[in-house]
Automatic annotation (TrEMBL):
Its main location: membrane. It is found in: Cell membrane. This is MFS transporter. It comes from Streptomyces marokkonensis. It is a multi-pass membrane protein. The chain crosses the membrane at residues 12-30, 42-62, 74-91, 97-119, 131-152, 158-183, 204-223, 243-263, 275-298, 304-327, 339-359, 365-385. InterPro entries: MFS, MFS_dom, MFS_trans_sf, MFS_Transporter. It comes from the Bacteria. Keywords: Membrane, Transmembrane, Transmembrane helix. Residues 210-414 form the Major facilitator superfamily (MFS) profile domain.
């Protein structure tokens, strides 16, 4: 199984990477999409909100579909839909076409996010050590590439479909080929394993048990959406930075997120997930405090950099903790997948809440004061760090190794 797991890990990392590219290409070209379809400023928030709402629907549907369909199959076919929907956004001319393309994108992204993290959690359990942060590092790397390609397209005045088509042509066949090596939680146990997987999905962990992790996920994405949507405006309008300098914080945030995730698994193995989550929450909260009190643009940029280093560890470890908690409370195969699907919905909840919350507080009060809200919410994560403690015992310092049978069975051995 060593080669099987290794190929599964590489192929899944590429899936995360491709998703990062596609999502960045969409969100960073929103002004161009608005201009292409003639969408008013009043109508634009409706389109933007529809994507995470439909993604939440797709995630919930995935939690039900994996009772009968392996997560690897859902991932194999949802990824092409995401890429083709992206191309549809760039190639259409009518608002109705945009609505259909964004609806397909949102539903497929929900299925894609849920199934990717299901496979990531089960692979981590089979490996017996923390590898989830590495998958999310691949996503961050894809996001950096996608944002860079979007900048190049905008700089050279390329039509949206011209910018999107080469990416889809390159990633779509590569993703389909790589999907041949995805590894499901049952370790490819065949029809009998699939039947046990379906039985496991009929139970699962209740929402009350997952609530602390759901809150951590929401708080992390409230912080993330604050940076992605408000960092440029804050640096320019509040801290007096230039228009050119205002484009830098989010790029720096993405790079520090990549760096933090690339080395984060080593921290989890050495100190345990609970300690890493506590440290990440404190660093992120400190970053928001620096942003709120920054005397100038460069100090604000330092704050956003700290936010990236702190937030980057929270989401991957929250998925891993949900899978572990489900395995402990309900040892049947598939319980972990159900927990991941439920938790993934709160990714979109945080995204929907974060940006409007900061904007409303900024307009009614002050943007400096508004930055204190994600600071407090992220700091609350420290209170819930106990939910990650068993994960720390399992992966921290290599104190526990997986049994041979567990490696052979994947998540059947949880």
């Amino acid at each position: 199984m060593t080669d099987v797991l290794r190929r599964g890990r590489v192929s899944l990392a590429f899936g995360f990477f491709a998703q990062g590219v596609a999502f960045a290409l969409l969100v960073t070209r929103i002004p161009a999409i608005q201009d292409r379809y003639g969408i008013s400023d009043a109508l634009l928030p409706v389109f933007l909100a529809a994507v995470p709402i439909l993604a939440g629907v797709g995630s919930v549907a995935t939690g039900r579909l994996v009772r009968r369909v392996r997560p690897s199959r859902l991932l194999r076919w949802s990824q092409p839909v995401v890429l083709l929907a992206l191309l549809g956004v760039g190639a259409g001319h009518r608002v109705a076409v945009l609505a259909v393309a964004l609806a397909a994108f949102g539903l497929a992204v929900g299925a894609l996010d849920a199934s990717m993290n299901m496979l990531g959690v089960s692979l981590q359990r089979s490996y017996g050590r923390s590898i989830m942060l590495g998958f999310h590092a691949a996503y961050s790397m894809g996001g950096i590439l996608g944002a860079s390609l979007a900048w190049a397209g905008a700089h050279w005045g390329l039509a949206l479909w011209v910018s999107y088509l080469p990416v889809v042509v390159a990633l779509l066949p590569a993703a389909l080929v790589g999907s041949r090596w995805y590894v499901d939680g049952d370790g490819g146990a065949g029809a009998g394993g699939a039947e046990e997987l379906r039985k496991g999905m009929s139970g699962g962990v209740g929402f009350k048990v997952l609530l602390p992790l759901c809150l951590v996920m929401s708080f992390a994405y409230i912080g993330d959406s604050t940076v992605s949507n408000w960092s440029a405006k804050y640096l320019q309008d509040v801290l007096g930075g230039s228009e050119q300098l205002a484009t830098v914080p989010y790029n720096v945030y993405m790079v520090t997120t990549l760096v933090g995730r690339a080395f984060g698994d080593l921290g989890v193995r050495r100190f345990g997930a609970a300690a890493v989550v506590r440290g990440g929450a404190v660093v992120a909260a400190g970053g928001f405090a620096v942003v709120a009190g920054a005397p100038g643009a460069w100090a604000g940029m330092l704050g956003f950099t700290l936010v990236g280093l702190g937030l980057c560890v929270l989401v991957p470890q929250t998925f891993a903790a949900a899978g572990r908690l489900a395995a402990e409370r309900d040892g049947r195969p598939g319980a972990s997948d159900a927990a991941v699907a439920r938790l993934n919905v709160f990714n979109y909840v945080g995204f929907l809440i974060g940006s409007p919350l900061v904007g409303a507080l900024g307009d009614a009060w002050s943007y400096r004061g508004a930055m204190l809200v994600p600071m407090v919410l992220v700091l609350v994560t420290v209170v819930y760090a106990r939910s990650f403690e068993v994960e720390a015992d399992r992966y921290g310092g290599g104190h526990e190794r997986p049994r041979t049978a567990d490696v052979g069975r994947g998540s059947n051995g949880l």
